[in-house]
Amino acid sequence: MTVDAIVGSFPLLVAFALLVAGVVGSILPAVPGAPLSVAGVLVFWWVTDDLGPFLLVALVAVGVLALAVDWFGGAAAAKASGTSTLVSAVAGVVGLVGMVLGGPLGLIVGIAGTVFVATYAEEGETGKSLRRALYTTAGVLASAVVQGLLTASILLTVLFVYLL
């Protein structure tokens, strides 16, 4: 392989690296998976011009949807469980601190523990507090799964177009 071939393929490698990082980042907390996927799509389009306008817009729209799930999925689950907006916000901050200190486990324990303690302090009912904590935590985890599926679909679509 010549130097020109290696240099010429570098932007394509960057595109696929961004797409893979997007899938990984959509599952790992605090890594912007959806924006990385969209960046990978845009780099791939810029390098190859193989996507066409409809597919380009569709893939970017899926990336925006994944970003919306990232931003609002956990909060929507918390709201659906009956958790107050204040408790959700505090749980988000505690979860973020927990993630910094203890990784993904710290995030989960921080969110679940905060929702449980705050709900118990407000309501005084163990069952309701536990249920809200579990629903909120499940919503956060489910949003990560949905983000992973959305960003993986972006990666697989671009890979399919490339191999076609």
Structure description:
The protein is mainly α. The protein has one domain (about 5-164). The chain contains five helices and no strands. It is elongated, with a radius of gyration of 20 Å.
Low-pLDDT ranges: none
Determine the mean pLDDT. Answer: 90
Number of self-contained structural domains: 1
What is the rounded distance between the termini?
23 Å
Helix share, percent: over 70%
Determine the oligomeric state from the structure. single chain
Report the principal-axis shape. elongated
Annotation, overall tally of beta strands:
0
Q: Sheet with the most strands?
A: none
Derived structural class: mainly alpha
The H/E string reads HHHHH
Report the C-alpha radius of gyration, rounded: 20 Å
Number of helices: 5
In short:
90% of the residues lie in helices and 0% in strands. It is an all-alpha fold and 164 residues long.
